[in-house]
């Protein structure tokens, strides 16, 4: 007889032919008391197998019976894993080394598969989500997450290309960075987080993400998650200067932090974009002699419909703002001023 407290493991072999994924079979009583459980019993295993078959429809076999599987029975789940592993082992043995097999490893995950991967990553890396809620209310340390649906919409709007870079200022546990790295064909994604708890979890998130992307055989952009202060980091000024897109949940950053960011953004290149939950310059900004040294003098700001969506720190949807750097705006202003002065001099 098996002791209820015995930790048992189930394994799923990788369709990419790498090391297997190990699933710890939960103690049912303990699981019922877990507040932030994402998966119940064998639910994660069934979802994982289903998504592999969606990615490799030629591997699906009727006798797997995913819809009829008892996710609460260890023995039934063990049978399911054994059937799946035999199918995968045969697939890898027959196809490894072929052009088709190698080409699959260059493909990116679908949005649906990535959502599942992110849930797997989060459930393993963030071992105590309550710690993320331990902050001083209304301080720059407030932790919040942007919904995947909103990030999907933002990615469609900014349309990153393979030579571009993306920076997340205040990246938390790294959800946005991993989202962009998984689904966007960009050169590099960088996230920096000041607070120790989310930054520690972000490191674990990165490791888990790399494992699962490798297990599914999916390509992702290079990324880095780092703990630090984006205002004082020695490499930050250069990174901001070269960035193509900067993302900032700056709603609770405070006026001092936002002002210092505005100073840094003045040196961004033309065409670079900033997406933020609070605008860095008003849509009604007017360029004149008094405002010519403000960030608004070198950028355009809009409120795209695509940038309106759910966030974790509010029960209401939040509007994000799109800023586009354009130094010619200021150059045209000076040219106009010069023409007016020249015209004025001639009439005297």
TrEMBL record:
Q: What are the GO MF terms of this UniProt record? A: histone H3K79 trimethyltransferase activity
Write down the Pfam families for this protein, in alphabetical order. DOT1
* Example GO biological process: DNA damage checkpoint signaling
InterPro entries according to UniProt? DOT1_dom, H3-K79_meTrfase, SAM-dependent_MTases_sf
Concerning its family, UniProt says: Belongs to the class I-like SAM-binding methyltransferase superfamily. DOT1 family.
Query: Any other noteworthy remark?
Result: In contrast to other lysine histone methyltransferases, it does not contain a SET domain, suggesting the existence of another mechanism for methylation of lysine residues of histones.
What is the protein's name according to its record?
Answer: Histone-lysine N-methyltransferase, H3 lysine-79 specific
């Amino acid at each position: 007889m098996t002791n209820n407290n015995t930790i048992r493991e189930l394994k799923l072999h990788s369709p990419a032919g790498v090391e297997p994924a190990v699933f710890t079979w939960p103690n049912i009583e303990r699981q019922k008391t877990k507040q932030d459980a994402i998966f119940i019993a064998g639910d994660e295993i069934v979802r994982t197998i289903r998504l592999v078959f969606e990615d490799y429809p030629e591997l699906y076999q009727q006798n797997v019976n995913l819809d009829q599987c008892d996710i609460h029975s260890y023995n039934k789940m063990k049978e399911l894993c054994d059937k799946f592993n035999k199918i995968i082992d045969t697939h890898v043995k027959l196809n490894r080394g072929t052009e088709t097999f190698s080409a699959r490893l260059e493909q990116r995950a679908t949005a649906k598969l990535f959502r599942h991967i992110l849930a797997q990553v989060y459930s393993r890396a963030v071992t105590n989500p309550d710690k993320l809620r331990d902050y001083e209310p209304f301080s720059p340390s407030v932790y919040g997450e942007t919904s995947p649906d909103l990030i999907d919409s933002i990615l469609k709007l900014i349309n990153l290309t393979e030579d571009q870079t993306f920076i997340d200022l205040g990246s938390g546990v790294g959800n946005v960075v991993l989202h962009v790295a998984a689904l966007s064909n960009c050169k590099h994604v960088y996230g920096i987080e000041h607070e120790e708890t989310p930054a520690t979890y972000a490191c674990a998130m990165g490791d888990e993400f790399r494992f699962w992307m490798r297990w599914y055989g999916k390509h992702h952009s290079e990324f880095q998650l780092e703990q630090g202060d984006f205002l004082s980091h020695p490499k930050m000024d250069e990174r901001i200067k070269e960035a193509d897109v900067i993302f900032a949940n700056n709603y609770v950053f405070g006026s001092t932090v936002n002002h210092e960011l505005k100073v840094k953004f003045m040196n961004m290149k033309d065409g670079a974009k900033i997406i933020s939950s609070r605008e860095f310059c008003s849509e009604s900004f007017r360029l004149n002699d008094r405002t010519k040294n403000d960030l608004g003098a070198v950028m355009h700001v809009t409120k795209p419909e695509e940038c309106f969506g759910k966030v974790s720190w509010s029960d209401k949807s939040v509007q994000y703002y799109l800023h586009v750097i354009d130094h010619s705006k200021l150059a045209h202003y000076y040219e106009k001023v010069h023409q007016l002065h020249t015209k004025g001099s001639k009439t005297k």
